[in-house]
Design goal:
Shape: globular
Order of helices and strands: EEEEEEEHEEEHHEEEHHH
Strand content: 25-35%
Number of helices: 6
Structural class: alpha+beta
Radius of gyration: 16 Å
Largest sheet: 8 strands, mixed
Distance between the termini: 38 Å
Helix content: 25-40%
Amino acid sequence: MRLLTVNVVEKLIPGPKESGLTAIDKRPQAGRVQVSELGLAGDSVCDTKHHGGPDQALYAYAEEDAAWWAAELGREIPTGLFGENLRTEGLDITGALLGEVWRIGPEVEVMVRAPRIPCITFQHRMQEPQWVKRFHRARRPGAYLKVLRTGTVGAGDPVQIVSRPAHEVTIGHMFGAQDPAKMQRMLDSGVDLMDELREIAQRVVARV
């Protein structure tokens, strides 16, 4: 398991008319990049209402999922196209548990926080019909990461799973069909959850 690339915005590009400029166009960086609690040095966020902050400091996407999309769409999915900061190889991001901790390289540690929710900016970026719905159906959302330990990362860094919480709710489960029993076990586990995801889990459990 390793990083293929570390990606940072180099130029803001026009997004949908209603959103203005966007920082979704990430490009791979040479050398090592500093990681703070708010993300990669040199990166930026335009829509701070819906993106960025400690719980969305980094966005990781798997090369295997990008290859699946390339076959599905009949086009290349180069690193950074989805706006990801980290393109990984050999790491099952869809199967990662909420609250799982990874070590990237010799210093950085991150926690898996949430699946990526597609937005109109992503739709505009891809220029694919019904992109938001297709992305949801595919259940290959990638993951937002919280930085627990700062340092530097670079292409080729190994990724190690340091710890996994005592529940079964993965990025894929949270993004797709939500099982009440699994949600209850996640809540009972005491895992550190984003408030929004905790509220979703509580609503799912309450419907039973």
